[in-house]
Design a protein that fits this description.
The complex is a heterodimer of chains A (324) and B (196). Chain A is of the alpha+beta class and 324 residues long. Chain A contains 6 helices and 10 strands, in the order H-H-H-H-E-E-E-E-E-E-E-E-H-E-H-E. In chain A, strands 6-5-4-3-9-10 form a 6-stranded antiparallel β-sheet. A 4-stranded antiparallel β-sheet of chain A has the order 1-2-8-7, with no helix packed on it. The longest helix of chain A has 61 residues. The N and C termini of chain A lie far apart (89 Å). Chain B is mostly helical. In chain B, helix 4 crosses helix 7 and helix 5 crosses helix 7. The chains are: A alpha+beta (324), B mainly alpha (196). Chains A and B meet through helix 1 and helix 2 of A and helix 1, helix 2, helix 4, helix 5 and helix 7 of B.
């Protein structure tokens, strides 16, 4: 038997092609088709090239316009948003919140409210180990700016304890009749470095005065009933004092890190709370929220914590946030 | 213009030029008349080439021939082929044939999926035609597409293994294996076809 592989060569042999030719009908039809295709191709290809050029030109123009239009929007606002973003007190990220000023053009006019003192709270047995029992000073603060870190549900939670901690826990930011010194502190920014370390920055209307102390009071979650007082004495050492109503005594105090830095009309200090059983955990606890209220206080730092000096507190500004 | 300059798919291939005395001429496709003249002088050669390799099926050969010339028109349109040579057409025809084998196998697989059909389809009926090459064509028909394409390119067109590998899109080693298995299968199927 012949090997079929060898027979394959016969398929292309001349004998295999004898009489093989395309049908005349097919041959003519294909010729006409090709003649038509070739005839229209030069013009068609030129037209296609022209159309492609037009489309490419338009696309290039659109791309350039888009780049020109989107570039400023992509750079400017995003950068600004990052810098000026409202307080976002995530424990690990920097938190910064601009505070409205009493004289700010966009600050709403709050209704005057006289805040009750802490001693008016039922069940309060608080005594201070170095200071007189404290009362919440009259507050002349303006409404906090809309902040991404404050959701309505948190306000609702705070409102339930509005009677106990009115100055800080209410959506109705309390206010007092502003004195002539009300605009002394025009802004406060609190930046959470971590769960226990804060950088507090006060923006003053004018460079700090030597005779004036700057006092930032903050409250913690009302459930824990703690206050934190931050003392920013220009040229001195930043201090803080933590007091918890439900414990009834000062729960810790300490110095901040470094000194109170003065940069023009800005006061800045960093505080790290001691690792006590009470305050740090309270501060670090989830859902704990802070209310910061700054005011000026004539006299020494300690005097500012004295109930007798509360009336001397002048201006305030508040900012609030909570840990997440 | 050489085949290499034209990007002919199978360099070094054995280009059939029988019975096409003018097919070796280069054709400058400056106008429709030139192309039509080129077509007239080469169509028989192209047709015979595909006819003898597609199972001697006139319908398939006509389709493939048409595809070859339309590809030439498209190349001329793109400006990629200012001059045309019959070897370029044969190279295109080889590719079309390989594509046809693959399509045919897919088609047969689909038919088998819906019914137990032994006959692949009508187009391939002439593979079993009762001419002198009937058993050989029938044996070729029963081979997988790749084996069939490799055997035809290797033993009918006389291409080298590397060119066959390029044509079927496989490595040289894989092509050698395909050729080996194809030869064995062809012999077995040829025996069966002789006894049928």
């Amino acid at each position: 038997m012949t090997d079929p592989v060898l027979l394959l060569d016969d398929l292309s042999a001349p004998a295999a092609c004898d009489g093989v030719a395309p049908r005349p009908e097919f041959r003519h039809a294909l010729r006409d088709l090709l003649a038509h295709e070739v005839a229209v191709s030069p013009g068609a290809s030129a037209l296609v090239r022209r159309r492609r050029l037009i489309v490419l030109s338009i696309a290039a123009c659109v791309a350039v316009l888009l780049v020109m239009l989107l570039r400023p929007a992509a750079i400017g606002p995003n950068v600004l948003e990052t810098v000026d973003r409202p307080l976002d007190p995530t424990p690990t990220g920097p938190v910064l919140s601009p505070t409205p000023t009493a004289s700010g053009p966009s600050a709403p006019v709050p209704a005057p409210v006289r805040a009750p003192t802490p001693t008016q709270r039922p069940g309060s047995t608080r005594t201070s180990a170095g200071a007189a029992p404290m009362a919440t000073p009259p507050v002349a603060s303006t409404a906090a700016p809309p902040s991404l870190s404050w959701a309505p549900d948190r306000f609702a939670y705070a409102d339930q304890r509005d009677d106990a901690y009115p100055p800080y826990s209410s959506t109705k930011v309390p206010d007092a009749t502003l004195s002539d010194d009300a605009a002394d502190i025009v802004g406060i920014s609190v930046r959470g470095m971590d769960r226990r370390t804060f950088e507090i920055e006060l923006e003053l209307a004018a460079p700090p005065r030597d005779a004036m102390n700057y006092w930032v009071s903050a409250y913690l979650d009302p459930a824990h009933g703690c206050y934190v007082f931050y003392f920013l004495d220009p040229g001195g050492t930043p201090e803080f004092n933590v007091m918890c109503a439900n414990v009834g005594a000062s729960q810790g105090s300490g110095d901040g890190i470094g000194t109170v830095q003065v940069d023009g009309s800005t006061l800045r200090a960093t505080f790290t709370h001691p690792d006590s059983d009470e305050t740090p955990d309270r501060i670090a606890a989830d859902d704990t929220f802070y209310g910061f209220n700054a005011r000026t206080c004539a006299g020494t730092t300690r005097n500012c914590t004295n109930a007798n000096t509360f009336d001397e507190a002048k201006s305030s500004s508040s900012v609030r946030f909570r840990w997440r | 213009v050489t085949t290499a300059e034209l990007g002919v798919p199978f360099p070094g291939s054995r280009v059939p030029t029988r019975e096409a005395p003018h097919s070796g001429d280069q054709v400058a496709l400056g106008c429709t008349e030139d192309f039509v003249a080129f077509y007239e002088t080469t169509v028989v050669e192209v047709y015979r080439y595909v006819f003898t390799r597609c199972g001697r099926c006139a319908q398939v050969a006509e389709d493939l021939t048409q595809e070859v010339y339309l590809a030439a028109v498209a190349a001329v349109r793109r400006g990629a082929l200012p001059d045309l040579h019959v070897s370029w057409l044969i190279g295109v025809a080889r590719h079309k044939l390989v594509d046809f084998y693959r399509r045919d196998e897919r088609h047969r697989r689909n038919l088998r999926a819906v019914a137990d059909l032994h006959r692949p389809h009508d187009e391939m009926a002439t593979w079993r035609s009762a001419d002198a090459h009937g058993p050989l064509l029938a044996a070729l028909e029963s081979l997988p597409a790749l084996q069939r394409a490799a055997l035809i390119l290797r033993h009918v067109d006389g291409l080298g293994v590397p060119e066959v590998a390029e044509g079927i899109g496989r490595t040289v080693r894989a092509t050698e294996s395909i050729l080996s298995r194809g030869r064995q299968a062809l012999r077995a199927r040829y025996q069966e076809a002789l006894h049928d």
